[in-house]
Amino acid sequence: MKEWTREERYRVLQNADEIADLHVRNAASSYRQTFHVQPVTGLSSDPNGFGYYKGVWHLYYQWCPWGAVHGLKYWYHVSSTDLVHWKNEGVGLKPDTIYDNRGTHSGSAFAYKDDLYLFYTGNHRDEDWTRTPYTCAAVLNAEGKAEKLPEPLFGPRPDYTEHQRDPKIVYNKKDETYYIFIGAQNQALQGRALIYKSKDLLKGWEFAGELKVPGFEDFGGMWECPCIVNISGKDVLIFSPQYTKLPGRGESTNHNIYMIGSMDYETLTFTPEQDYEFLDFGFDFYAAQFAANVSDPDTAILIAWIGLPDNHYPTEEEDWEGSMSVPHELRLVDGKLVQTPLAAIQGLRDEEIKPEGKLPKVCELQVDVQPGDFDLNLFTKEDGTGGFTMHYKAETKTFTISKAGMDKHFNAQVFETLDMPMETDLDHLQILIDSCSVEIFANHGQRVFTARIYPTEKEHHYTMSDNGSMKIWTLKPSVKDDFVV
């Protein structure tokens, strides 16, 4: 695997010709996704600037163009009219000011009147490589290009560490005030979220205080990507706690969790109704972000990075890595968060094939499960051995999923097998399979499990218990892998 120097990782992209050959090589990969947003070249990580604006869904992702490495970050822009079919629009934000000279890092979007605003973290480093994070903003012009404000909205607070990033903009109708949530770390190396407020989107921002979440005063060492949304009258807080191990998550120190409760903007207190839950129980799911400007008060739309910080994946050898999840539609059902893929994705169904043990490379599975223990093993060899194994134990309502039987092993030191505790008996699975990812929605979205997977040519079969029945559809592609920079 290539060893990258700092100079290589933080090289400025001068023109598209510098990565044209890399795109040709990346696009030729057998693991290239067909209905997931993926990097035009190199690395994609956190989703950014996700929102609805004038009939179009806009999404950006953190992008390092040179290869599968974290270095100088750009925002790359994709768009969609239905959250299913995506096209590449080119670079959305460049690290081209003194305030973001070493990267335009994660942030959010907000549409207001006739404009779409982008809020991001400017990653500044001096000659000694000391970091200063700034919260910056830009607005889309008539040509769809982002024009940055000449000055940041605000700089970092000196009473916290340099880890202050990922602004999420929220408007509170009650006091007619805008709030920005910032992921942060205090001097005791504890994860926090900082809150700023203003009556104006682009000026007058002042520090309001630290988000208080009773019972979570010492939870993780950094809270990345804090995000809050109201669904059916309940507030849902999500964030990605780092530098901590959580029960049931193996050796991983990067997670994505949510809490349901109520947010009091006067006291800056989020009061959870219950303990945290994992947004996704899988191996690879991080930095989830809610879409801005969703009009339905009973629905939220969420997208995440299929990957984890500090993990490594087989396509790094091909100089690319990463993709976004399919967008999730979130609702509250009986006080519980339910996540399902958008119904519109069914429009990608091409051909229904007989379930005879052969697994298409790109497909959707709908599985009905009768009571009792249940096994479903995907990506097995022709004789039924190996594979991505799923075992449901009815007595304990535990769904155990393992990638240990696959030929390509990666991140095994973190985890290869995880348990997904079920609230009710397993009765249904919707599984979306792309060239290098699997997304499992159990019991109509009660539980979700996302994983990167890299099957070889021999690993395209499956086995299933007798108490399961399956429908299989091949899926048409819906992302344009065009070279647009």
How would you characterize this protein structure?
The chain is mainly beta and 485 residues long. The chain folds into two domains: 6-341, Glycosyl hydrolase domain, family 43 (Tachylectin-2, Chain A, 5 Propeller), CATH 2.115.10; 343-475, Jelly Rolls, CATH 2.60.120. The chain has two helices and 33 strands. The chain has helices spanning 6-9, 20-27; strands spanning 42-53, 56-64, 74-80, 87-93, 104-112, 115-125, 131-140, 146-148, 160-172, 177-186, 191-198, 206-210, 222-231, 234-242, 257-264, 269-272, 277-278, 286-290, 300-305, 320-321, 328-333, 336-341, 349-353, 363-369, 374-380, 387-393, 398-405, 417-421, 428-434, 437-442, 447-452, 461-464, 468-475. The mean pLDDT is 97.
What's the gist of this structure?
The chain is mainly beta.
Question: Which key terms come to mind for this protein?
Answer:
single chain, 485 residues, mainly beta, Tachylectin-2, Chain A, 2 domains, six-stranded antiparallel beta sheet, five-stranded mixed beta sheet, 2 helices, 33 strands, 2% helix, globular
Terminal CA distance reads: 26 Å
Q: Which range best describes the helical content: under 10%, 10-25%, 25-40%, 40-55%, 55-70% or over 70%?
A: under 10%
Radius of gyration (CA) equals 22 Å
Read across the widest sheet, the strand sequence of neighbours is: 23-33-24-29-30-31
Please report the number of helical segments. Answer: 2
Strand content: over 45%
